[in-house]
Amino acid sequence: MECVVQGIIETQHVEALEILLQGLCGVHKQSLRIHELCLKSVPNLGLVASEIRLLCDLEQPEPAWTVRHVGGPMRGAGAEQISVLVRPMQESKISKNALRLFYSLGYKLDHEQLRVGFAFHFQRGAQITVTVSSINKMLKPHAIDDAVPVTPGIQLVEVTAPASSENYNEVVASVSSFCEYLAPLLHLSKPGVSTGVVPTAAAAAASLMSDGGGTK
Amino acid sequence: MGTLSAINIMPIKWILHWRPIVGTTVNTQILTEVSQCVESINGVKDGTWKNTLRFYKPILKEQTNALEFSQNYLGISLQEQPNKYYMTIRGQQLIVEAESSMQKIMETLQSYKLRVALNFEGFQYRLGDFRLRVEKVVPVNSENLRGIIMEMEYLPISLWETSHQIMGEFFDIWKEALGKRSLPGHFVHMEPNFAEYGLSDQYTSQHTVVQYDSIITQMVATAISSQRVRD
């Protein structure tokens, strides 16, 4: 399973967020360029409709493919009270003919997108990953070179951490407390519960740029 | 085709399967004799071996318009690659390499169901630069013998074409040794067209999977048709 929260930030404040993350994490950012294909089962296939994601990491010397399955969010009173979404997640690296496999098995391309940005991976109570990326859509199938932003001027921030049924409470706590550090720049919440940009972002960004920018 | 990361070059391997004389079936006596024969040519037992093959078929809400895809696939776990999982679709000459978590992902999707699961298990022998394995094919959770397989590895070479002569010569020696026992059948070597699967001449575990796929497809077809006869 994984714990996840999302938020959005205006592109003009991304540089400030990067400085803040760099300071908090103490690691260097990694470039992110991922072609993501969402496939759905054809109507006649399976006990239930199913969905699978193929991620192609274009930052690697050879494009590296991963198949990812994300389940429905954890429910119940306990899940309602926490500010982080906990859901089953399984991943496997897979050879580059994965798309052909799923087409053959009865899955069809539902949509695809290109995520471009950066990520920080670090240990802070849990193995946390923060990605900041713009989501781009393809005007023609698989035409990643001609992708255009879905929401120009806005980037998606996602904080995720792997968890298990034994330790998710601790992971949720670690993710929540980390998110508080980012609060002046953006608000993070469960996916699907968008809270928009925060009013303090501009001031916080200006402050970060003057303090942390050093030479700026 | 395509590997996950670093190419896992493996020693060349021929996988042989036992073809009984028409009218006879495999039995454990043949398995015992084959093992004894390996020991008689100075094969030294040095371990056990187990690979698992699982056949899956689609779960369809309606049988009518099944032709849209209707692919069966084979999922294979190899002892030589404990962290990996292979999937093949024979009709499409497709082989996919993934991590072992892939098996769980496919089960979670609930779009395919397990039809048959077979273990290929037995002993491994060392004979100079060769490694031989004698394996029985049994359904998981059963001792009902379905077939006999041999793996014949030549450790110094990993190029398919280069190995042909020495593998062929060794196979002849083996057939001659086994021939003295007058068993009701013989071992057969089928050579799949690896290029059709996008595989190169450099031997990898994916080549092993393709060989297993060729053999098992025949074996399961036979099992299913004989079951239909009984039903």
From TrEMBL, chain A:
Keywords: Nucleus, Transcription, Transcription regulation
Subcellular location, record wording: Nucleus
GO molecular function, a single term: transcription coregulator activity
One Gene Ontology term from the biological process aspect of the record: termination of RNA polymerase II transcription
GO cellular component, one term: core mediator complex
Keyword Transcription regulation listed: yes
Family: Belongs to the Mediator complex subunit 18 family.
UniProt name for this protein: Mediator of RNA polymerase II transcription subunit 18
The organism of origin for this protein: Solanum bulbocastanum
Automatic annotation (TrEMBL), chain B:
Keyword entries, A-Z: Activator, Nucleus, Transcription, Transcription regulation
One of the GO biological process terms: regulation of transcription by RNA polymerase II
Entry keyword annotation includes Transferase: no
GO cellular component, one term: mediator complex
Localization (cell): Nucleus
Predominant location: nucleus
Domain of life: Eukaryota
A Pfam family this chain is assigned to: Med20
GO MF, any single term: transcription coactivator activity
Chain's role: Component of the Mediator complex, a coactivator involved in the regulated transcription of nearly all RNA polymerase II-dependent genes. Mediator functions as a bridge to convey information from gene-specific regulatory proteins to the basal RNA polymerase II transcription machinery. Mediator is recruited to promoters by direct interactions with regulatory proteins and serves as a scaffold for the assembly of a functional preinitiation complex with RNA polymerase II and the general transcription factors.
Subunit (UniProt): Component of the Mediator complex.
Family the entry assigns: Belongs to the Mediator complex subunit 20 family.
Protein name in the entry: Mediator of RNA polymerase II transcription subunit 20
Source species of the chain: Solanum bulbocastanum (Wild potato)
